[in-house]
UniProtKB/TrEMBL annotation:
<dbReference type="InterPro" id="IPR015947">
    <property type="entry name" value="PUA-like_sf"/>
</dbReference>
<dbReference type="InterPro" id="IPR046336">
    <property type="entry name" value="Lon_prtase_N_sf"/>
</dbReference>
<keyword id="KW-0378">Hydrolase</keyword>
<keyword id="KW-0645">Protease</keyword>
<dbReference type="GO" id="GO:0006508">
    <property type="term" value="P:proteolysis"/>
</dbReference>
<dbReference type="GO" id="GO:0008233">
    <property type="term" value="F:peptidase activity"/>
</dbReference>
<feature type="domain" description="Lon N-terminal">
    <location>
        <begin position="11"/>
        <end position="204"/>
    </location>
</feature>
<dbReference type="Pfam" id="PF02190">
    <property type="entry name" value="LON_substr_bdg"/>
</dbReference>
<protein>
    <submittedName>
        <fullName>ATP-dependent protease</fullName>
    </submittedName>
</protein>
<dbReference type="InterPro" id="IPR003111">
    <property type="entry name" value="Lon_prtase_N"/>
</dbReference>
Length: 214
């Protein structure tokens, strides 16, 4: 396991709208743009093999070059190369971070100086949600999935531990960038579940018609 002292001051960041990574969760990525292929090659040469997933946000002119301040770093734990030079990668979530500034350099991808302060819990063991009313939560999910014509393995959801259940849904269900950011920034698992419930209830009331599984 990565220890706090092992976390670097500067990491490569991958701005990808809607792609949410959470600590102790896994995110599959399909990397094919030349600048991000270079990012992956450079990352694999580092001891920690960390890539920071971060949500972009519109800049002053709506350019989308601005980044949200908080992201989550993942360690490259699996990768394979296709015949045409693309990479299929799995990131395992390590810890959230706060961007302090964009790092100087000449890489084709963005690198940022980051602070890990305030996210000590991310490096610990799995969280539990002691206030989770699982039958009520699953009933809400069933109504949501039915309204969106989605399917899932309900037995697996019933048996999943709290963190796997809540974080997997937060990552897989399609919400907009600001909603994904709210799920990322939730200080604890119970707060993330409360945020998730609010977003699902809002969608069921007609707040959005686009929630589907990625």
């Amino acid at each position: 396991m990565i220890q706090p002292a092992d976390l670097p001051d500067t990491i490569a960041v991958f701005p990808l709208p809607g792609a949410l990574l959470l600590p102790r969760s896994r995110l599959p990525l399909h990397i094919f743009e030349p600048r991000y292929l270079q990012m992956l090659e450079d990352t694999l040469k580092t001891p920690q093999r960390l890539i920071g997933m971060v949500q972009p946000c519109p800049g002053p002119q709506g350019t989308g070059d601005e980044l949200h301040a908080i992201g989550c770093a993942g360690r490259v734990t699996q990768f394979s190369e296709t015949e045409d030079g693309r990479y299929l990668v799995t990131l395992s979530g390590v810890s959230r971070f706060r961007i302090t500034r964009e790092a100087n350099g000449f890489t084709p991808y963005q690198r940022c100086d980051v602070s890990w302060t305030g996210f000590d819990r991310d490096l610990g063991r799995s969280e539990a949600d002691d206030t989770l009313d699982r039958p009520s939560f699953l009933d809400l999910l069933e109504r949501f999935f039915s309204a969106r014509s989605l399917s899932t393995d309900w037995e697996a959801l019933k048996d999943a531990d709290d963190e796997l259940l809540i974080n997997s849904l937060a990552m897989l269900l399609e919400f907009d960038i600001e909603e994904k950011q709210a799920l990322l920034e939730a200080p604890c698992l119970a707060t993330r579940r409360e945020t998730l419930v609010t977003l699902i209830e809002f969608a069921l009331r007609g707040g959005s018609q686009e929630e589907t599984l990625q």
